[in-house]
Amino acid sequence: MSLFENTLQQIKKAGEIANINQDLLMTMRSPEAIHKVNFNVRMDSGELKRFEGYRVQHNSLAGPYKGGLRYSENVDEDEVMALAAWMSIKCSVVGIPLGGGKGGVKVDTKKLSDSELERLTRGFVGSIYKFIGPSTDVPAPDMYTNPQIMAWATDEYMKLNDGKGLGTFTGKPVEFGGAMGRSTATADGAYFVMKDKIGDSLVDKSVAIQGFGNAGSVLAKLLDDAGVKIHAVSDSSGGVYSKDGLDIGLVDEFKENGGRLVDMKDYETITNEALLELEVDVLCLAALENVITEKNAKNIKADIIFELANGPVSSDADDILEERKIEVIPDILVNAGGVTVSYFEMVQNKQNNYWSAEETKEKLQKIMSDAYADVRSTHDDYKCSYREAAFIVAMKRLEEKFEIRSSM
Known about the structure:
Layout: H1 3-18, H2 22-28, E1 33-42, E2 48-59, E3 65-72, H3 77-93, E4 99-106, H4 114-128, E5 137-141, H5 147-160, H6 185-198, E6 206-210, H7 214-225, E7 229-235, E8 238-241, H8 248-256, E9 268-270, H9 272-276, E10 282-285, E11 304-307, H10 315-323, E12 327-329, H11 331-334, H12 337-351, H13 357-382, H14 386-406
Parallel strand pairs: 3-4, 3-5, 6-7, 6-10, 10-11, 11-12
Antiparallel strand pairs: 1-2, 2-4, 7-8, 8-9
Helix pairs in contact: 1-3, 1-14, 3-14, 4-5, 6-7, 6-12, 6-13, 12-13, 13-14
């Protein structure tokens, strides 16, 4: 089953459980627009190369399309459609007035110089700029894109649009209209959900985190500062483990200096696969999709799983984990802090009024806590999984908008 088909199955299941409007379910089965572009980039060598890019606009019932731009060799139409559909649901589950979109370029950024990366970004924006804008479609950073790339993208868009459109991209540097707190927003949001789910006993829980990138490393620091013992963390090379708990400051310093965790001598090394099967209370998945599948779901020993990455638990694994009474708190809720603060950036750009990091975090906590409360209540009411509950919350909000528009 493709990623997009899996997403549609999740939407369909939520619709069946909560008796969602069938016309809305039909509408959600396909994107409103798919823009596939091919564009040329002059390389440093003088060679002209052609690149393939996408911008998928899934659903705009709630507002402008919103979703990241990723630069990856794995970018294809099915992946981008699935991620765009997820964004429609994710924005709705936290109740922000945005729809779902996603985009990307098929490229290995490790093979590009900074100047080639800039020309690639400007070339891609030149190919899609007529389809995007502050009130139409607002891209953001995603895999292998960052604030600098968003700055180039914004600059190019404004050049092509008579100097207008600062709010067309979010995740920009603070000095160029970016929001304070955006870089830590995904982890902050996840931490708020974890605290709401587990409560004061969080400090007594043992934790393992797969993925020590931006989201995973920041979450590790937040938990460590709160006195939570983290027994294992990993990056793409593997990880480190300690039965007594890791010194997260030491691990973070090692990574900041460019080290691979498997080369760290201070702790026992562990594979990513073994980390997933540790006897811990809480497992946080902040790396790749489909790391827990039907092949290893029966070996998971954690009581609760939090999905910071997109789609780290396959649908088959979901069923196995539910049978085993292991709770999975889904990506569309847990990692929604990023898009929420992106929405804050859109508001600030429009008003030309910028908030402090503390104000951003306070507003984020309220939205994430309210969203968790809605999902928890739906989970209890329908006696369903947290993933199903999150989809139901999102679909019910979209249903209200759909029926209002249909009656006009």
